[in-house]
């Protein structure tokens, strides 16, 4: 990762009385960070940058080389003053692996990244869910693209098996696996690694962290899809590495990821961002979470399909009438082709999403709001009414300076977020205050 992509900042000076082992690890982390972020670099330049004694730097570098984290490139340019050319060092990105797993409502993607965040392998397969085949809400496309009736623990073992197979395909040792990021479409407690509720998977109180850690032998960090997508869009996509960003994640469900000063905002129970389960007055639609009137029921992919079906059943003309199955993408295609009903439904959904975005803007005052998830590719048909709704509902002072942008990463946002979060969690530098 480049220096501007790090997720922390310098910590206070070490406390007096810090023992030798702590100081040794601090020094090691400083040296490794300089090689990782500033390489190729020489031992002498590291000593100058850190003010560590040259023998100390040499001893640390020798240890890092022995551990496979750093490698020598050979002599650099001779200094103007003459003398022997320095031996240059670089970070060995393949010294460490991370797994990013996005378990979506329909598809699951497992990606393997190296210590620089570069993806080196990927596997994709239908999501194994605990829901029975044909359960409403399980598959917005209605196409049965998930594997139904699988217990959560067995589903996670399948994910772990795919991760192991992907690592084996890289020809790199599994022992290099440093961390796993698991991303889910539901309420997750980051602190305990438990999926509290994922209605579109049929999961409740599933110990994701413990199951995957037992299967893969590495630390596991669990986030919801909105949080992961927010991190990825901020570091690699539409966010542009701003400090304060909110991502509205609209797809099969509706959630949000909020970054405050670059940190993921989790909340005391780890469930922050579940904006889709806020109640909308007057809405009586039952939600998969067990409650009634949730915003998600009128602002999501399944909500688009339900609205079109109801209008067609009431006699409104549409090119979608008579189709047994269709999804939000089909509705968007019909709208672009001039279907008035389809365009009207998408505009209505966009207005509801704008209400959700206004809540985020009023509550968190972000610099950027990114619209991501499966509905984002609909584009201006959705975003124009969304922006108009934001203008109606958000406070004027909070609106000043905020930009509403569409996702750049698209369907890769969640899995890239999973990889980046795993990588960030795996950092052990004492000078870093964890920001995710």
Automatic annotation (TrEMBL):
Domain of life: Bacteria
SUPFAM superfamilies to which the protein is assigned, alphabetical: Actin-like ATPase domain, Winged helix' DNA-binding domain
Stretch list, region Disordered: 1-20
Stated family: Belongs to the ROK (NagC/XylR) family.
Protein's name according to its UniProt entry: ROK family transcriptional regulator
Lineage, opening ranks: Bacteria, Bacillati, Actinomycetota, Actinomycetes, Micromonosporales
């Amino acid at each position: 990762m480049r220096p501007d992509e790090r997720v922390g900042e310098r910590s206070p000076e070490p406390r007096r009385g810090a023992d030798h082992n702590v100081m040794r690890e601090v020094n090691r982390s400083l040296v490794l960070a300089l090689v990782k972020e500033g390489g190729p670099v020489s031992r002498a330049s590291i000593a100058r940058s850190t003010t560590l004694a040259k023998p100390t730097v040499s001893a640390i570098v020798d240890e890092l080389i022995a551990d496979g984290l750093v490698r020598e490139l050979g002599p650099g340019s001779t200094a103007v003053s003459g003398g022997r050319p320095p031996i240059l060092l670089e970070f060995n990105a393949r010294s460490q692996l991370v797994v990013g797993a996005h378990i979506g409502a329909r598809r699951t993607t497992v990606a393997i990244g190296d210590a620089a965040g570069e993806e080196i392998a990927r596997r994709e397969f239908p999501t194994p869910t605990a829901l029975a085949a044909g359960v409403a809400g399980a598959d917005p496309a209605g196409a049965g693209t998930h594997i139904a009736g699988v217990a959560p623990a067995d589903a996670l073992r399948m994910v772990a098996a795919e991760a192991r197979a992907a690592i084996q395909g890289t020809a790199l040792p599994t022992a290099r696996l440093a961390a796993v990021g698991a991303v889910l479409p539901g309420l997750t407690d980051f602190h305990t690694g438990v999926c509290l509720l994922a209605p579109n998977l049929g999961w409740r109180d599933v110990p994701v962290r413990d199951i995957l850690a037992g299967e893969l032998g590495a630390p596991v960090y669990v986030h919801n899809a909105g949080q992961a997508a927010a991190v990825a869009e901020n570091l690699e996509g539409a966010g542009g590495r701003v400090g304060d960003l909110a991502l509205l994640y609209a797809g099969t469900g509706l959630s949000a990821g909020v970054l405050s000063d670059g940190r993921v905002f989790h909340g005391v129970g780890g469930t922050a961002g579940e904006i889709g389960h806020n109640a909308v007055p007057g809405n009586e639609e039952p939600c998969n979470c067990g409650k009634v009137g949730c915003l998600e029921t009128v602002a999501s992919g399944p909500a688009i399909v339900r609205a079109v079906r109801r209008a067609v059943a009431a006699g409104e003309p549409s090119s979608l009438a008579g189709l047994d199955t269709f999804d939000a993408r089909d509705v968007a295609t019909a709208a672009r082709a001039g279907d008035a009903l389809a365009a009207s439904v998408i505009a209505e959904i966009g207005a509801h999403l704008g209400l959700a975005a206004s809540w985020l803007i009023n509550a968190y005052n972000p610099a950027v709001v990114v619209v991501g998830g499966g509905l984002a590719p609909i584009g201006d048909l959705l975003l124009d009414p969304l922006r108009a709704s934001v203008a109606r509902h958000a406070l004027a002072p909070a609106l000043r300076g905020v930009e509403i942008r569409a996702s750049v990463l698209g369907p890769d946002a969640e899995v890239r977020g999973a990889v980046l979060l795993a990588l960030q969690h795996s950092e052990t530098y004492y000078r870093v205050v964890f920001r995710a």
